[in-house]
């Protein structure tokens, strides 16, 4: 396993983080990642830790608490081996079935205790604002997380899905230790933000690192997912013309993977994590075998020439 230094947090974090959105099951609106096996999910999380991964990421909105509960079970007896990340300020309204963004002081104060209970722990390492709340001043939100930090309920503060301007404003009231933007070969929209964060000592946790699975090479025909499948709801990769462009990109990844005698997923992981501005990449795992495959990516590296080949193809295809 490779490790990278989160400067502001003063922590050495594995280049891979366990992402647990995909093991959350369905929410009350029926939106999900498909069928999940809780026992396998727990085994997969533990195998990632056995392989040297020391960061686990979750959120209360994932399966409306289910993901946090699964993580809590998975970390029994090994909590001291990992940095635990969860989020706040985003939940499902059970009446409308829609996502609500609420980062008010009292909400943050309530949510932390609910998360701690589900996760079976007495502190969170990285507590991350999931989405900006346009109805709450960032000063109020930062006052809440600073209070939690003083009480020892959290150690570090983060922001996800937030623009540079909001992060800079938040920095006036609190030390921002980490941000969590999307980043992969097929989504580089936040690259400039991540490069700026690197200059600030802010760690970056990238989500969608394998493009919801499309960059593993396991999907070769446009799938007919249920309309409520999260891969259709949240990501654009499984719709045309984007899908066909990514299939063309996979030809280059296939060639490089074959040259190394490695899986395509490992090419994708290395392409991302070899970048200095990527501190750690979130990858979902459903089974111990997937955990082993992802972690084995760090047994080798892409050459600069191979990265250039991939980048040239991304540019030609106008994706990412």
TrEMBL record:
Cross-referenced InterPro entries: AKR, AKR_Detox_Biosynth, NAD(P)_OxRdtase_dom_sf, NADP_OxRdtase_dom
Enzyme class per UniProt: oxidoreductase
Coiled-coil ranges from the UniProt annotation: none
Gene Ontology terms, MF aspect: oxidoreductase activity
Domain of life of the organism encoding this protein: Bacteria
Pfam families: Aldo_ket_red
E.C. number: 1.1.1.-
Transmembrane segments: none
Record-annotated NADP-dependent oxidoreductase domain positions: 19-312
SUPFAM superfamilies to which the protein is assigned, alphabetical: NAD(P)-linked oxidoreductase
Name the UniProt record assigns to this protein: General stress protein 69
Organism name: Anaerostipes caccae
Biological classification of the source: Bacteria, Bacillati, Bacillota, Clostridia, Lachnospirales
Gene that encodes the chain: yhdN_3
